[in-house]
Design a protein that fits this description.
Layout: H1 2-13, H2 19-49, H3 52-78, H4 91-119
Length: 120
């Protein structure tokens, strides 16, 4: 969430916004949060169900799914032309992508863990 605060502070101070850097920061932080949450939930699910191999398969699927999704978010903003990379009118699009990124990072581990527990 540090990246979100930096963008808000930059906008308030009138500093130029750097959308690609900000999205890259969000992706990095989201991946760290996602990984920690994923590990915590998977370990808990293994303890509750005793089905270690299925939990590990779910973990692999989650990792294989989140990395390409995060790369798409980052690539969209990284490939902006230089003049668009600092255009404040892109704020709404940025916030939409940021919200979707965090919904994936926070929601996907819970959704897959609930599915795993239901299968067990």
């Amino acid at each position: 969430m540090k990246a979100l605060e930096e963008v808000s502070q930059d906008a308030a101070a009138g500093k130029p916004v750097d959308w690609p850097k900000s999205m890259s920061d969000n992706v990095a932080i989201a991946l760290i949060v996602y990984t920690g949450l994923n590990i915590f939930l998977t370990v808990d699910a293994i303890k509750q169900t005793g089905m270690r191999s299925l939990a590990m398969l779910c973990l692999i699927i989650l990792v294989a799914g989140i990395i390409p999704a995060c790369r798409r978010f980052e690539k969209r903003w990284r490939d902006l032309p230089e003049e668009a990379a600092h255009d404040r009118t892109l704020s709404g699009l940025y916030r939409r992508d940021q919200a979707m990124l965090w919904l994936l990072a926070l929601g996907l581990p819970f959704a897959i863990t609930l599915l795993f527990k239901a299968m067990a």
